Amino acid sequence: MDESDLSSDLRDRLDDRRAERSKGTLALSEQEGYVGDELTLLGRNFPENEQYDIVWHTSDGKWGVIEANRVVGPQYSPRTEAVATVRTDGSGCFEETWTVPEDYGGSHKITVENDGGVAARAEYEVRPWFELDRTAAPMGESFVLRGYGIGPSLDSNNFQVAWDNQFVGFITGVINRGTATARIRAVGPPGEHVVQVWRNYRGVPFVANNTQSPLGPVGGDRPNAWTVEVTEPDDPPPTMWVDELLEEQPFEVHYPDLDADTEAELDVTPQCGPAGTQAVITGRNFPPNASVDLQWYQHVGDGIRGLEVTPTVRPGVLPTVAADADGRFQVEFEVPPAEGSTRPILAEVDGQSVAATGFMMQPSIETFEPTSGPVGTEIEIELSGIGWTAYESAPFFVYDNAPLGYACGTSEDLRSPTVRTVLQATGEPGYHFIEVYPSIFEMEDDEPEFEIRPHLSYLDNHPVRPLPACHMVFEVTGE
């Protein structure tokens, strides 16, 4: 049997026996600490003038996702990393200073190894901690919150962020080795406000964290709350914007099956973008002079009511084109407002689909009006590029750092490819901020609880794709 097939407990016992035979001892200057701390490793009672590897035992994390759609939950597998090489002196001793890397929180084994055998071992506990990039920001800008040593255990996988005792959303470090980044909007009124991090695997703050939790205070002996100042902006904030869009490719798993297997080829350039993108479809190896119907597909359905979400032709988006004598064609089109993720594009000849490509639809703000008015003004918002998949179909609306609710990124018919809502303007006269954060609509694992909550670490830890957020600014007037 390969040793990798053994349970963790059996492997540890084997390590202990090997360490006992080697008569080596590994001691640590500290038994617990934080990412970035310096740790001294002390070796004693080893054979003299021997070379050893210091090995750090940890995990690799990812989101379990089926067919680029269904989110199973966070999954972790063992990982080891040789972090230093040491040589014992004439007394069989060594001393090595090492910096704790960005990694998951919890207990980590450190082993001293030689020729594949474990000569000694020790345990080190990485504690989560958090930092804020600044304590003052003009209204409309963001405070950047970073967490280190998050997860993977159930009790430390999910931390929540609050603004003025109002839960804003959660952060997690699933795919970034325990590090998470969140941007917290500086919202009014100008003056002092409080940012705080809480912990609870249920996805909402457990307010006895720092008084009665068996896990101890959030962040250990480091801050988990900060008093910050919001100042008047020098210039009016922008009216609306979307986070920077990254280069992406469509998922072929979301294409419909073809009716016929031919040599025909189809591609689109660029492969991603928001509504309004000018794109070019190119066809090759089609029958000479053939009439080719190009079809744009929309995902239609309502999973919450048991209606299967399926790719369905949305008529009138793409034209019929004629291939030349070499079976080639090229046509330019403007990407329409549509639901997000992969938009399949199929080519049909004589009623049969013979080639497929896809366009990765990214978010855009199609409508945000009006941009000012008194309390009670109805604000119409329409978003394009909000997808049908479980990890992007529930955009969560947050008003002045207070979660309001979510919308749905799939439609029951071909007439509703966008997300539309109407919000009421509230608050004192001045600027108010609407954020639309990604969330996870459904997750097959019950714990930790990530479903339908604003995901604040969406840029570096969201499942499958680093989805952008949408941002809007409304000015409440005194009229």
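Above is the first protein from milestone M3; the second protein from the same milestone is given next.
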Amino acid sequence: MKLHQTKSKRKRGVVLTPTGLQRLQEAILAWEILENKGDRLTLEELSRQINISAKTLSRLWSLSASIDQKTLKLCFSAFNLEINEEDYTLLNQENETEISGFLSESSSIQVENHWSYPNGAVPLDSPFYVERPPIEELVYQQVTQTGCVIRIRAPRQMGKTSLVLRVCAFAKTQKYHTVHIKCSQIDSQCFTDLNKLLRCLCWQIAKQLGININLDELWDEEVGCKLSCSLYLQNYILKQSNSPIVLVLSDVDRFFEYPHIAGDFFALLRSWCEEARQNHNWHKLRLVVVYSTEHYISPDINHSPFNIGLPIRLHEFTQQQVEDLARRYGLQWTDGKESAKLRSVVGGHPALIQLALYYLSSGTMTLGELIQEAITNGGIYRHHLQQHWVKLQANPNLVRVYTKLVAANQSVVIDPIDAYKLESLGLIDFEGDRIVPRCELYRAYFSKHFSTMV
């Protein structure tokens, strides 16, 4: 039969091209804006959305490992995309390891010059993590200290999660246990009641440590939820551990939206910090608190965890750091020239810098084209900007405040609560007493969009 005569002896897979990767990433970003309130999907969430494994997704993003054609079509159809011929190329699976020399059918650019699309935290094995001395050395040294508290503060997409990944990796080299709780992932209903919240917290700690949770038996309603929580940690979790436990609490700013429980929760954290320094039973606890802004914080200084421990503030990349990162992407830049042009538009914003270098290294556009498109219509940053736009529109008062800010040529007085919200989004910066848009890209884009609302 013809079917048997034409059957290939080699199993053929497909590799995503840079064009296909760009189309798929843009479709995912559009879906996140429309369907996910602008929040980015993690690799695991994306895996569930498409119904393929995270390992397969990693192969797809690499642009160097093949997957079968049906899986590729599934990835595209999940985000309402029709797959085109220029989105992929056929590859003999036995030649997969030789992909670094392969030339895409739709481009003369070598695949080996393309890197994974920058999305979220910088992986531990990535060559594109930019150290900001002496921060890494400080946190590594501090996490080994009995009863340490580390406070990492920076707006969104400034590198907090990337640093936390490295803190946890270092802790594991010291044979410590690590627990990372992302407060943004806790159900809203848990924030309605402190008892629910603390039980949820204890459940996650035990689960991540692989300890039998046993909450109902150990939780004593008679003594109150705060004491029950503390006793659970001291007499059950810490007592079972032979090594220190690094407890990372990310996105703790979320508590600021729930003032009826924020005060009690932060006071409890403060008490753990003090116990860890004074009480032998708590010596194994290392606490890392991660947040975007503290301008909305006004708790009693004697009951706050935000004025103790090692404060770490992540700032934007310097010009030297941008040029170093450009070299890692294989770009041959003149010292002080191209980096200055890029920073004049996006400042040293880590996420925006990474995205620009990714596209420039692919050869799909020049720096001049990137800057021109970014200023006129958002260009490669349009989805990043649309995410901010969606979040701003959800709060009409913030729209009014930011409208005044982007149009002002001098200092504007802003309510502290509005400043907290805008800084946590990463939309503003502080120059002395002045509050200004974080970068020229934001000023240009939002000035244009605000003008259409008049």
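Note on the second protein: The chain has four domains: 11-113, 135-313, 319-377, 383-451.
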